[in-house]
Amino acid sequence: MLAVPLQALFGQLLIGLINGSFYALLSLGLAIIFGLLNVINFCHGALYMLGAFVAWGLLEKTGIGYWPALLIAPLVVGLFGVVIERTLLRRISGLDPLYGLLLTFGIALILQGVFSNWFGSSGMPYEMPSQLRGGQALGFMFLPNYRVWVIGVSLIICMGTWAITEGTRLGSWLRAATENASLVSAFGINVPRMITITYALGVGLAALAGVLAAPIYRVSPLMGADLIIVVFAVVVIGGMGSIIGSIVTGFTLGVLEGLTKVFYPEASNTVIFVVMAIVLLVRPAGLFGKQA
To answer: How many domains are contained in the chain?
Structure first.
């Protein structure tokens, strides 16, 4: 039996939970957008990057630090999402989802190209708040405070979003509009406005993930390019449009990826895609998705 140092095992589990936190937050936003708009939002990774850059710009240009940026960056990117939805996505409403995928893929390439031209591809550091520096020595591992903060915030945001969607009147309207938008409109609910708010919420979650990621990873124009491929795999495994599926699958696959790095490092970059292939063969709609 392969002997694994306890410190290495728990260290990779922590990294897996960190990655899972970002997978869950990003796939949650994708699930919300797909559930109501039926749009495969391929620019989600670029908007995650944009959130990190907004936080970095606030710090560098105005001196606004991490804590205000947690609120400001999602609002700024959310407003940018409103512009995208009203000027571009609304024009392809009702068409095949492929059109939305191609449009948002083009938006992602434009954003990445513009920011790469302005800032280069090496990336810039972003300082974490002084209150979250350091960590706790547990004997078998060192537990950084900021990592615990990221995992905790991600869990709270994910479960709060799920609770709102499943247990409030707004959530019932969203679910009803997903099934029959015309019927919801007949009851006097402004569905186009609801769609705009939903898209802004989805991209705001991506921006929040970007701010949380900025002190851990360098703020780079390409920071979302590779991550979004994995996040799409998470969404497919959990079920397109399934909020609870995105949350559970995001954290689970993050931990699985971390464990794979311990026991079989060569497969750590592909294990999520192997799981996706198996799930699609057994249950094409995903683990929590609705079968056609």
So the answer is: 1
